Each structure stands twice: as structure tokens, then as C-alpha cells.
Amino acid sequence: MRAEIKFAAAAVIAVVGSTVAAQAQSMVAPVVTSNMYQPSYSAWDGFYVGAQGSLIGMKSHEIAPGILVGEQLLGDIGGSAGVFAGYRYQLSDWFVLGVDAEVNNVATQFEFNGAQNYGALKWDAAVRATLGYPVAPNVLAYGTVGYSWGRFDFTPSRGGVAAAFTAGGFQLGLGVDMMITQNLMARLNATWTHYGVNNVPGGGTSEPSNQVVRAGLAWKF
Q1: What is d(CA 133, CA 150) in angstroms, rounded to the nearest whole number?
Q2: Rounded CA separation 217/50 (Å)
Q3: What would the pLDDT profile of 115-140 be if each residue is shown by its tens digit?
Q4: DSSP string spanning the chain?
């Protein structure tokens, strides 16, 4: 009888011990290897450079000889072609910070009373800070704030007297970038820029602004 009791006790101890060991093993954190989970929040890190085309809508309030105070000048919707480059760093799964810059050759003009050529924007350049949110693993929505410079030439409105000047102003924008492949990125964004009130050579002042929609392709390094 004593032998049977000892045997039963040993069996109970063995069962309890195996159960405790299994529970202890389940509490141990799994070992992460190079073939297991890797964080995905570095997908947008790095430099990029690309080319773009744009549609530009211009307007301005002008004070000049022969023009009423506050006369609004509406420009044709022109276009531009240029290059852009930037750098991004993803802070977390939620935020991507970056800096972006561009230079464009512009083909658009102002029209006085819808007909007469008043002047044109020749080129523009901008630098922007960006804050993005990944809406999908390969899609980034972002907002921008920056500063833009533009070269305006109002010589046609001054009877041939040179009236070109460079103006600068703040810029706000929204955009979406998408990684087509690991390195190829497509872009679509829009900005609004106000260039402030500027003195025009030959007399008067100019207060131009524009709205721009851009589409481009870039290579991400």
C-alpha cells in the first residue's frame, strides 16, 4: 500500500511540474530573428530628386500709371516645367517630416481687361517644410509651408521700359506622394503663394499671387 501511495504522489508531482513548466515557457518573450517582424516606419526615409510639370493660375492687384487703384489683373492659366528634390525622415508610424525644394521655368502671363498682355512670371523657386501622414504603406498625404521667389516682368505694361523684379512670399500647400516601386515615386500637389506688395521699376506697385497644381516623378535613394 505504501508503494502505491508513493507511486501516485510521484505521478501527481510529475503532472504538476510539467504544467508549471509549460506555463513558464509561454511567458517567455519570443526571440526576434532577422527573418521575423521588421518595423515598416522607415519606408519614406531618405533623399529624392525628380522632374515635374505644373498648371498655374495667376492674379494680381496693380497700381500703375494709367490703371485704376486696385485694378485686378487676371492671367491665363499657364504652365511650367521644373525639377524638385528633398529629404524625409519618418519619426513614427504616424508622422513623416521633410524638406522640399523646387525650381521651375514658367510660361504664363497677366492680361489687362482679359486681352492686353500686361506682363509675365518668368521663373519661380521655393523651399518648403513638409509634415506627412502615411495613409497606406506606399501612400503619403502631407501638408507644406514654405517660401517662394518669383521673377516678374511687366515691361509690356510700361511701353517697353524695363520693369522686371523678383518678389518673395509665403506658400501653403497639400499633396500626396505614392511609391510605385521601391525607388520610383509619383507626386501630385497644390500650393497657394502670395508674393506681397512690391515696387515695380518704372512706377507703381504689384501684389501678385498664384495657385499651382503639380504632377511629377522622382527617384528615391
Answers
A1: 30
A2: 5
A3: 577 889 999 999 999 999 999 999 99
A4: -HHHHHHHHHHHHHHHHHHHHHHHHHTSPPPP-TTS----TTTT-EEEEEEEEEEEEEEEEEE-TTS-TTEEEEEEEEEEEEEEEEEEEE-SSS-EEEEEEEEEEEEEEEEETTTEEEEEEEEEEEEEEEEEEEEETTEEEEEEEEEEEEEEE-GGGGTT---EEEEEEEEEEEEEEEESSSSEEEEEEEEEEE---EEPTTS-EEEEEEEEEEEEEEEE-
- Residue 221's Cβ-side half-sphere holds a number of Cα atoms within 13 Å equal to 9
6 Cβ contact list (under 8 Å, min separation 6): none
Residue 73 is placed in which grid cell? 489683373
For the chain, the structural domain boundaries read 46-220
pLDDT in tens, 150-177: 999 988 877 778 999 999 999 999 999 9
Q: Under CATH, to which class is 46-220 assigned?
A: mainly beta
DSSP-assigned beta bridge partners for residue 62:
71, 206
d(CA 76, CA 210) in angstroms, rounded, equals 11
The residue-averaged pLDDT of 139-148 equals: 98
Q: How many residues does the chain have?
A: 221
